[in-house]
Amino acid sequence: MTGLERRKTMKKVKIITDSTADLSPKIINKKNIGIVPLYVVFDRDVYKDGFEITTRDLYRKVEDTGKLPKTSAPTPADFAALFKPYIDEDRDIIYIGLSSHLSATIQNARLAAERFPNGRIHIIDSLNLSSGIGLLVLQAADYAELGMPAVEIVQHIEAMVAKVRTYFAIDTLEYLQKGGRCSAIQNLIGNLLKIKPILQVKEGKIGLHKKIRGKKIKTLDSLIMELTADKEKLDLNRIIIIHSCASGDLLYLKNQLKSFFNYKEIISLEAGCVISSHCGPKSVGIMYLLK
Length: 291
Hints:
Elements: H1 3-9, E1 13-18, H2 25-31, E2 34-36, E3 39-42, E4 45-48, H3 55-65, E5 70-72, H4 76-88, E6 92-97, H5 105-113, E7 121-125, H6 131-145, H7 150-160, E8 164-169, H8 174-178, H9 184-192, E9 195-202, E10 205-213, H10 216-229, E11 234-244, H11 247-260, E12 266-270, H12 273-279, E13 283-290
Parallel strand pairs: 1-2, 1-6, 6-7, 11-12
Antiparallel strand pairs: 3-4, 3-5, 8-9, 8-13, 9-10, 11-13
């Protein structure tokens, strides 16, 4: 069988991710990416992230109630309902989802995949969150557009997982305190000293990377310094900047990136409800790949 004949017999591949990848509707439509939403829960009110509640809605509800919402994973039934039409169309599926260290989302996707013929659905644990997942999803979508078979796409993406770098600069400790990730005293001291933490995703978990004292611009410059430290190893194909109600900070970072790095594509996105409920308003993040 020739290469052309083999390509004609290969199944088309559908790329799916969850709402925590924080990809914009424009990108989702352009790249034909399937989305399964996580749930955002305020007491008895349950919303589908990105479908029934926005980040601005979330902040209004937090302000009204004084409480952060809980978030929960899509159920195996949710995944099965999304997978089935594509399997019925005789397409292979690749799902790239939120780190298994942070959510049951990946496990529920695996349970759903067991309901379908073996080898038709491939599950990739991103070991990441937000648009750290998005970078992997976009690359997988690029490969799918080229007609690459599912097994090869999976091999390439799994090799990329450890090469994603994700950093978030936090403007206020209030949401970390409300979520039980720092005490009220630490919150008070941090605010008095104007300490702004930088969080990093590492080995599938999010933790404190640095504490920056002073004006916000120092925190933003510190994010750029992370790229500078990796300058010789950067994959300059694509980088994502993400913000939660911090468009001015996003613009500053974008201009800095254009000045110091020769990226082919700089993507600007708004953070969804899940990451925003952890980091709070005015947070910004940078996600990039190493070679």
